[in-house]
Please model this.
Amino acid sequence: MKIMTNQSKGFYQIMGKVFGSREIERETKDRIYDDDEKEWYIELDKEKNVLAFVSIKDKTIKNIYGTPDKLEKILTKVYPIVTTGIVTKKYVQIYIKCGYKVEDLYSYFVKIYGGYTDEHK
Model:
């Protein structure tokens, strides 16, 4: 797993295709942006193609995409550092499997709650 920001060397070589992908947008019903201060947790294949990613800013998940097994790996890893996020409903079963509490919000999005609490400060 790679952890990067938009300032990391090679970030756009890895994530550039994601930002312009209509396929990912259709699949997740979400637009993926390379905002400053996001930390990206990325799973790649041997050819450095993106299999899954989660972006986090200020303990809040901003973007999610990926194959179920790779996404589960990332979501499990970041669970202790996440407070919440409004994310695509597509992966709701994975969120639950990884321990996140899920609140239904909109047609395509849910609010999830991770494991970060004030006692972690």
